[in-house]
């Protein structure tokens, strides 16, 4: 008994010794595969971070180019969602889906070649059943595309609803209506939850369908191998090798399908991302940001150094939105040292013209900034250059204030703000009574509508004073002011104009038209003039009666 036991132990030792090399290679293969998988994950995550950073930077650069006129037609919460969580959802797409797709393209053909080399019948079975995976992916993708789009839209609605409630919370509390918004937020949240659960159910269903298709295909290979092992036409070692290798042919494709559905949110968000980039003419991701900044700085220097600019010439400017004409063949000259007022009925295109001056909308025609070559009189020839946004200090209809002190809002964008210029800008804007250190809340809460308007005008004056912008554009700066405060503001605006600035004010108020050196009346384009004909006639009569100089420009 002892001898037989020793012989058995010796036999096992010899067998283990013979297998030691193979086991060592197996350990090496497992370690190499683990290291490669780790490296792939690290590089994929790093690549996803770089791409997201480039996309986010391009979008943030594109939004100022599009300007307020484009943003006014979009839901601000939806745009914020695209830039934040929408781009973050691309993590799975870039770190999981794309690497798996590349791995599929590389690994699947290699596995098929190996299968054909060892057992062409099993290789042919795998080759014929392999297209079932992409077929199921396409069919399930069609079914889930609508659900994924709805989920993304629901997220935008939820963001918009929450932002509306937060922005209007003070007003809602004043009227005792804040608690009624709870039901609205709850309803929108439930809709988003239902949409999310629907997408998740479809994603799990897709994973089940792909696993089922792959399992059936591997089962066909296993049955074929089993029958040939029985009749002796296939060696056992080859059969086991092929049976272990067959699932590896389907695994990459299964992973591609699963990761694609997991990255559905990011894929849906990219449509909105590239819509923004295309609208801004920035379709190429990864543009040379430093070159863009250098070009912008050169343009700003060239524009703001035109301190001797004497006029802005608008020649045959037309602006169209899709099939609607907003401004049609408008021409006018705005002189330096004078207060020019744009008048006209609502819908005549005054704010659209301001957007064209700022470069926020595309337009036909030309806008030129002219300055004299020397210090001569009127006979001195003018040198013109295109008017760039950097040469304009402007304040829109909405103040657009931020959380922070009044001084920081006035000097917004200035790296080294000047307290003296802040005080001077507030004085010119009839806001000298406001404490510069007073801290505003979100969206400028803490100020009345008229005070917020004057702070916004002070911001434009500060830009004019600190950067030497020759053009000052104000859009409805006194719509929320009383007569006394409006008169003080008009005095400050006239003082800025008398210092040599080219001041253009859009206003419906008679006081501004009375104080103007030039009133340019805009007429609504043909096709939209009829609905506002009465208002246009009244505005024209008031402008003619109250302005020292009136010019009707069509």
Architecture overview:
It contains 17 helices and twelve strands. It is an alpha/beta fold. The strands form three sheets. A six-stranded parallel β-sheet has the order 6-9-10-3-11-12, sandwiched between helices. The protein has a four-stranded antiparallel β-sheet with strand order 2-1-4-5, covered by helices on one side. A hairpin with a 2-residue loop joins strand 1 and strand 2 (324-335). Helix 2 packs across helix 9 (264-279), helix 3 (90-118) runs antiparallel to helix 8 and helix 13 (419-428) packs across helix 14.
Helical fraction equals 55-70%
User: If helices are DSSP runs of H or I spanning 4 or more residues, what is the number of helices?
Assistant: 17
Average of per-residue pLDDT values: 75
Strand content: 5-15%
Q: List SSEs in N-to-C order.
A: HHHHHHHHHHEEEHEEEEHHEHEHEHEHE
Number of strands: 12
Please give the order of strands in the largest beta sheet.
6-9-10-3-11-12
Give a short account of the largest sheet: 6 strands, parallel
User: Which consecutive residue ranges, at least 5 long each, have pLDDT under 50?
Assistant: 282-306, 373-380, 529-554
Radius of gyration: 35 Å
| SS content category | alpha/beta
Broad shape: elongated
* End-to-end Cα distance: 118 Å
